[in-house]
Task: structure prediction
Amino acid sequence: MTKYIKEILISREEIAAMCARLGQQISEDYAGKEVVLVGVLKGAFVFMADLARHLTIPCQIDFISVSSYGSGTSSSGIVRINNDIDMDIQGKHLIIVEDIVDSGLTLNHLRQLLGTRKPASMALCTAFDKPERRKVAVAVEYVGMQIPDEFIVGYGLDYDGRYRNLPDIAILGDTGQGGSR
Ligand code: IMP
Ligand code: MG
Result:
């Protein structure tokens, strides 16, 4: 399970505090409104569950499934929609919930795609952000934590489909695949 884990970067306690802060902020910003949270699968499933439970405003939940990575740790640059949302989001206050922003390609693509469906408003919320790695500029309204340029796993984030269930955020060590990226 923890074969390739180098070190814990962010503890579950720090993550919990971050979720509480974001939930409170969003609840204040959208006071008197209802929001639609669209979680980006698979990575956002854990964060989505925590964030949603910190909202004190009404909300609806949907998911979109995308893949931008193959089995390695570097972006292919191609964003594929595997499964679209079910809801009609026209006139709704949309918040796209991501696990991490890296190159920015995924969120940039989703912002454009979902924007064509005429939501009343749209905001992006990510648990983690690696600003050093950005390839396209994308405005992210809610950022949990900025992290250094390391490949991380846990709290929904995977390496080759694994480690999503780790409660903390860990840095991936040498996987024997020629470096961790
Ligand atoms: P972007 O399109 O390059 O911004 O990448 C976003 C997606 O890449 C995220 O939703 C993750 O699934 C994946 N990703 C980026 N960085 C990491 C990381 O450090 N660990 C695990 N997955 C990552
Ligand atoms: Mg992933």
Summary: Helices lie at 12-29, 45-52, 105-115. The pocket of inosinic acid (ligand 1) is lined by residues 40, 43, 68-69, 75, 98-106, 151-153, 157-158 (CB under 6 Å).
